[in-house]
Amino acid sequence: MERPAWAPPGIDLSVPSVARMYDYYLGGSHNFEVDRVAARKAMEAFPGLPKIMQANRAFMRRAVRYAVAQGITQFLDIGSGIPTFGNVHEVALAASPEARVLYVDNDPVAVAHSRAVLGDQPSAGIAAADFRCPMDVLESEEAGRLLDLDRPVALLLIALLHFIPDEDKPLETLAEYRRRLAPGSLLALTHASTEGGPRTTEQGDAVMGVYRRSSSPLIMRDRQAVAEFFTGFEMVEPGLVSMPDWRPDGPTDEEDPVVYTGFAGVGRTA
After folding, report:
1. Three-state secondary structure along 190-234?
2. How far apart are CA 267 and CA 70, in angstroms?
3. Which of 34-48, 80-94, 146-160 has the highest mean predicted lDDT (pLDDT)?
4. Is residue 30 within 8 Å of 107, Cβ to Cβ?
5. pLDDT confidence band for 1 (50 / 70 / 90)
6. Are strands 186-191 and 154-157 parallel, antiparallel or unpaired?
7. pTM
8. Residue 128: helix, strand or coil by DSSP?
9. Residue 15: strand, helix, or coil
10. Closest to 68 (Cα-Cα) out of 240, 180, 178, 188
11. How far apart are CA 32 and CA 172, in angstroms?
12. I need a labelling partner for 227 at 20 to 30 A (CA). Which of 26, 160, 236, 246 fits?
C-alpha cells in the first residue's frame, strides 16, 4: 500500500483507526482505504453513523459555549481526533479570546494533522498521549503551557469512553482526572448506546463486530453505566439525555431519529 506524503512514518496502514474512520464519517480526507472499508461496513451494520457523528460535534459545540458562559475558558479535549471545521478552539475562541485548548490523542495521524492545523496558534496545542495515562496528559509540556489546573477546566470526552473497555478501568481513570481538576470544572461526554434510540441491540452487536478489527474496539453501554462516569460530578440540567436534547439551539422535531442513538451530558465538580 502506498503511503501518502502526509502519513507519519511508523503507522500500520493495514489496521483501521477509529480516528480516521471518524474523519471519513465527517467527510474528511485524512483516512486510508482500510479505514474507508471498515467505516462502510460499520455504516452497513449501523445505518446513520455520519449523522450520529455530526450530532456528537454539535453537542460538543454547545457544551463549549455553555462552559464559556459559565466563565470557563480552559478546555482539555481528550480523544480529539483529526481536526475538522468547527473544532473546539475555533468555537471557544469565538466565544472568548481568552480561551485555551489542549487537544490530546494517541493516533499519530490525528496528532500530526492537529500540529499542522494549529501551526503557531498560541491558544491551542496537541499532546500525543492516552486518556488511560492521566499523568502523561496533565504533566505534558503542552498542558504546562496552556492549562492552569488551579482554575476550572472543561474536560471534553466526546465519543471517547465507548472505546475504553471496563478492564482498562475507565471509572477509576476518570476519577483521577476529577481529583486533579479545580472545583467548578466541567465534564462533557457523549457515549454510544442502543438504549432509547432507534437502533436494535443486534445492530449494536454488528457494529461492535466491525470495530473489533480496528485500533480500538467499540463498547455499547446502557444509560446507567454511562451515568456512572459522572460519579463525583453534579449533573447540569437537563441531565444525561440524547445528544440533540442537551440544551438545543432550536426545535429538534425535525431531527433524524438516528441521532437519538447514545447519550450526552455535562457535570460539574464540587
Report:
1. EECCCCCCCCCHHHHHHHHHHHCCCCCCCCCCCHHHHHHHHCCEE
2. 12
3. 146-160
4. no
5. low
6. parallel
7. 0.92
8. strand
9. coil
10. 188
11. 34
12. 26
Q: Where are the beta strands (DSSP E) in 21-153?
A: 74-78, 100-105, 124-128
Mean predicted lDDT score pLDDT of the chain: 91
pLDDT > 90? residue 267? yes
For residue 264, the surrounding DSSP H or E stretch is strand 263-269
Q: Which residues neighbour 103 within 8 Å (Cβ) at sequence distance 6 or greater?
A: 77, 80, 88, 89, 114, 118, 124, 125, 126, 127
Tell me the three cell numbers of residue 192.
454510544
Give 214's contacts (C-beta < 8 A, 6+ positions apart). Answer: 15, 16, 17, 18, 21, 38
Spatial separation of the C-alpha atoms in residues 130 and 37, rounded to whole Å: 26
**Tens-place pLDDT, residues 142-201:** 999 999 999 999 999 999 999 999 999 999 999 999 999 999 999 999 999 988 777 778
Percentage of residues in the chain having pLDDT higher than 90:
64
Q: In sequence order, what DSSP letters do the residues of 20-43 get, joined into one string?
A: HHHHHHTT-S---HHHHHHHHHHH
What is the mean predicted confidence (pLDDT) over 214-243? 94
Which residues on neighbouring strands pair with residue 190, listed in sequence order? 264
DSSP 111: H
Please say whether the beta carbons of 30 and 21 come within 8 A. Answer: no
Is residue 146 within 8 A of residue 124, CB to CB? The reply is yes
Q: Are 22 and 54 in contact (CB under 8 A)?
A: no
Q: Dihedral (C-alpha) 164, 240, 198, 27: value to the nearest 10 degrees?
A: -60
Q: Long-range contacts made by residues 165-168, C-beta under 8 angstroms, separation at least 24? A: 165/217, 165/219, 166/219, 168/132
pLDDT tens-digit map of 55-76: 999 999 999 999 999 999 999 9
